[in-house]
Write a structure and sequence with these properties.
The chain contains 28 helices and no strands. By secondary structure, the chain is mostly helical.
Length: about 675
């Protein structure tokens, strides 16, 4: 009998006994990869569909929308004095502003009341300006003001400079009447601040050009429209800064006033406003600078002053005259900036001063007031004190020197400048512009929306989709794409310069001290002025506008990036250094990645500045939307197209602003 012998049971193999493969983790696709894929798809579609459905429009061609706007403009002109809305609202506003501007002009710049000279001649104006600068600031600023105003006369531009000053004074006066109360309200009320913020964002996003066309529809061309446009453009800085100042007053101070029984009005007048005064004056400074920039642009709608001189010189390629008038604008900007800056700091300096002359300030100011009044009387009474002596030979010499330098540069540097211009134009601008303008409109629109979603999120994508749809509706899609190409190329170059100089300034205190004053001075200059030197170097081309835009937008990007680099903790940099990182590795692996939010903010601000300047470049051959707007002012049959181009500029600005702001929030999250 056979006995079955059972084999001992083998222990079952468990899965635990075997080495397990690591679980597969889904890798998240990074944004750069997604952006690269979008661009590749775009290039493929461009190669297949080039030149189809581009929505191109010839310079003289109009769409139904443009014709409708022309008809609306004609209808408004025909019924301006019979329509109740114009008769009792728009015309009244224009009349009030016109009377205000005319009054100030008759006071300091234009003959009035049968007099061959203004009510206050040059000697009185110089005396008053010097005295006000001394009272608000200090004697150094007063000397600068007297020298600056005298320089206007030596240039042969006294009346034009006073016309510009008159427009600035009127615009700033009206702007502050609204801006300071609105700023206080926004500082006290969170709800009102939330309501105002989108409007202020929109007003500050719009390039200066855009304010002009719709205002002429309601207020006609001239000083009134220029002043109203300046008020709209210049008010937001004061509103924002005043609200910020009110919100940053110490809560303990306000609570102490409340505990002592102060009413809301007493708390506002005795605590909040006095403690916010310095910051509010800084807001006034920004409003004055914005007003000066806008007043010069308003020359396009026949606003008087230095702007028309620069505009006519640019259009006739007269670099010498443009440089002389542009220099006057710069001098006025520096004087106004120094006066308001000194005014914001004077009280604090006086509080800590131990100068033995401080106690004599009031008597000296009283004596100065007497001297100023005597000068005003002399300039009102005697022609020799009213008319500026001389024939402006200094201005003639300045213009001649500028022309000589221009001719020398064109004769000796044309090889270098033309090579640089051609390299950027042919190597970067033309290919990108061709990609945008020759791609089907729906491809470009889809790419813009997709990039907006990747960079800023779905809300940015929705905003971009709306802007793209409205851009198509304006009928100037092709010109908008040309402007978009110039803007993006200029912004890329701005960011390259911003990173190079911003990193240098952020890492070196000495470099920051050397470069920052130049950047501050550059930001004071109105956009018009940037065109003059580059017109001399590169001629009337779109590249001139791009270079001017780079110089105009570069300072703000450099300062933001420098501040971001400086904000990186020293301990982090020291840790990287101790780990053996060299300078290049510290910059690229530590400081720039940790400054990502600053880089995004710099891109946002650079884009807005560049867009504004690229459009102004329509005056010197930049074409596209800038040319459409300028042509709309000068040719009535193109008014509708010019207004549509202004709307297109706004849409580009809103689209850029929303995408970059959303990207900045993502970067800082």
């Amino acid at each position: 009998m056979t006995v079955a012998i059972e084999k001992p049971e083998q222990p079952e193999r468990t899965e635990a006994a075997e080495p397990q493969a690591p679980p597969k983790v889904a890798r998240k696709v990074g944004r750069p990869v997604v952006i690269g894929a979008i661009i590749v798809v775009w290039l493929v579609l461009f190669a297949l569909l080039r030149g189809k459905q581009t929505l191109s429009l010839a310079v003289a061609d109009l769409t139904d929308l443009h014709r409708w706007i022309n008809d609306l403009n004609d209808s408004i002109g025909a019924n301006r004095n019979s329509n109740p809305l114009f008769l009792y609202f728009f015309n009244e506003i224009r009349l009030v502003i016109d009377n205000l501007v005319t009054f100030v002009q008759h006071l300091i710049s234009q003959p009035s009341g049968g007099r061959p000279v203004p009510q206050i001649g040059w000697l009185g104006v110089v005396g008053l300006a010097g005295y006000v600068s001394w009272a608000l600031g200090n004697w150094k600023v007063a000397l600068l003001t007297v020298a600056g105003f005298t320089f206007f006369g030596l240039q042969g531009l006294w009346q034009q400079s006073m016309d510009t000053l008159a427009l600035i004074l009127c615009a700033v006066f009206v702007a502050l009447l609204f801006a300071i109360p609105l700023g206080v309200w926004a500082g006290l009320s969170d709800r009102f601040n939330r309501i105002m913020t989108p409007f202020l964002d929109f007003m500050q996003t719009m390039p200066t050009f855009v304010y002009l066309a719709p205002l002429t529809l309601f207020f006609l061309i001239g000083g009134a429209s220029g002043t109203i446009a300046t008020v709209i453009y210049a008010a937001p800085p004061t509103i924002r800064i005043t609200a910020h100042a009110i919100r940053n007053v110490s809560r303990t101070t306000v609570e102490a006033a409340d505990s002592l029984g102060a009413t809301s009005r007493q708390s506002l007048l005795k605590v909040l406003l006095p403690m916010s005064k310095r910051t509010v004056v800084m807001g006034v400074n920004q409003t004055i600078m914005a007003a000066l920039a806008m007043v010069t642009i308003a020359a396009l709608i026949n606003a008087p002053g230095l702007g028309p001189v620069v505009l006519q010189a640019l259009q006739s390629l007269d670099v010498g005259t443009a440089f002389n008038a542009g220099l006057a604008i710069v001098v006025m900007a520096i004087v106004l900036d120094r006066v308001t800056t000194a005014a914001s700091a004077r009280e604090e300096h006086a509080r800590y001063a131990r100068d033995r002359f401080v106690k004599w300030r009031r008597p000296l100011l009283g004596a100065g007031a007497v001297v100023a009044l005597v000068l005003v009387y002399l300039s009102h009474t005697y022609v020799w004190a009213a008319d500026f002596p001389g024939d402006g030979t200094v201005g003639t010499h300045i213009a001649g020197a500028a022309d000589s330098v221009t001719n020398w540069a064109q004769d000796n540097l044309s090889g270098v400048t033309n090579a640089f211009r051609d390299a950027i134009t042919n190597g970067l601008l033309n290919p990108f512009q061709t990609l945008l303008t020759d791609s089907p409109w729906w491809v470009v629109g889809a790419v813009l929306v997709a990039l907006a979603v990747v960079l800023g999120g779905w809300r940015s994508g929705v905003t971009t989709a709306v802007c793209v749809g409205l851009l198509i509706g304006t009928g100037v899609w092709s010109d908008a794409m040309t402007t978009l190409a110039s803007t993006i190329v200029a912004t890329v170059l701005v960011m390259v310069l911003g990173i190079v100089f911003g990193v240098w300034m952020g890492r070196s205190v000495l470099a920051d001290r050397m470069i920052r004053p130049t950047l501050d001075a550059a930001q004071v200059m109105p956009p018009f002025v940037y065109l003059v030197p580059f017109l001399a170097l590169f001629g009337a081309t779109r590249f001139t506008a791009i270079v001017a835009a780079i110089v105009y937008g570069g300072p703000v990007a450099m300062k933001i990036i420098a501040d971001g680099i400086r904000a990186v903790p020293e301990t982090t940099v020291e840790a990287a250094t101790s780990a053996g990182c060299n300078t290049w590795q510290i910059i690229t692996k530590v400081q720039l990645p940790m400054s990502r939010s600053a880089l995004t903010l710099a891109t946002n601000q650079g884009l807005i500045y560049v867009l504004s300047m690229v459009v102004v470049g329509g005056l010197v051959g930049a074409g596209a939307l800038g040319y459409d707007v300028v042509a709309g002012f000068s040719q009535s049959e193109l008014y509708g197209k010019g207004l549509a181009a202004g709307v297109a500029i706004v849409l580009l600005g809103v689209m850029f602003d929303r995408i970059t702001q959303a990207a900045a929030r993502r970067a800082s999250a």
